[in-house]
Design goal:
With 134 residues, chain A is α+β, with helices and mostly antiparallel strands. Chain A is built from four helices and five strands. In chain A, strand 3 and strand 4 form a beta hairpin. In chain A, helix 1 packs across helix 2. Chain A binds a DNA duplex (30 and 30 nucleotides) through helix 4.
Amino acid sequence: MHFTNDELIEYLRKNNIRPSNIRLKVLKYLLENRNHPTVEDIYHHIIHEIPTLSRTSIYNTVNLFKDRGIVNELSLNEKELRYDINTRLHGHFKCESCGNIYDFQVAENIGDGLKGFVVYKKDINFYGICINCQ
Amino acid sequence: MHFTNDELIEYLRKNNIRPSNIRLKVLKYLLENRNHPTVEDIYHHIIHEIPTLSRTSIYNTVNLFKDRGIVNELSLNEKELRYDINTRLHGHFKCESCGNIYDFQVAENIGDGLKGFVVYKKDINFYGICINCQ
DNA sequence: TAATAAAATTGTAACCATTACAATTTTAAA
DNA sequence: TTTAAAATTGTAATGGTTACAATTTTATTA
């Protein structure tokens, strides 16, 4: 999947995020890879294009994206947090053997028992051994 | 709910955990309160009964309980981890207003799409505003 | 265009829950 | 009692993330 600069700028503007060089590159990476990267992953990918890049800028960027609702922060019982550009409801499976993270479908009515509760974030994370590691 | 010492000892022995004073007190606290406490919560509750108690002992104990499968570790996007003596499948709802953590039912067949995957941990955590804080 | 303000970026230091580890104490076994 | 094993303790280290001030870049206005 490939996104033009104009598409990336539009994506950010629609979500009330001023486009900047760093933000466009982070967004592009998230959209074109969709690999639930850590801050370190993102940093290493972009440092080659922006040699003065600071890790703090990546932290600032993903936190801004999170506040604006265009990424979800994943806490998968690892040391580092991960970021997911896919904000539609889905589950994550982490293979403890190969480390891969798989998306899986989840019924929309999960948690419907919470009547009267306002839910604005749903984390569904499974752990185990994936089919390729058996 | 109240547990006798003999019941607590039996509970640990059945799960291959040598009973000790600290372990019995931690287990008793988890069973009788069921409030998803942090290490700090547990420590503060027991320090009155064991003045020489060390935080490390609480860390050791909850990690041992986790390894033996009698508690689940909850990562609810807080600084601290929490521990839940109820290891049956259920979801957690964290109210961002009052901080309360609610259990809720979850269909047993959630994640059945993961055919061929061995799942040994299921985390289902929701965040929002509870019915009492609206 | 220049001057000014606002926003973005950077780098360092601090934070702090958790773990590592060695020393001490307690418990169990012989 | 002796000895070994296990449990507990206290301190130091870890390391991802945040705080914050300084610098740079971008946008606005005269």
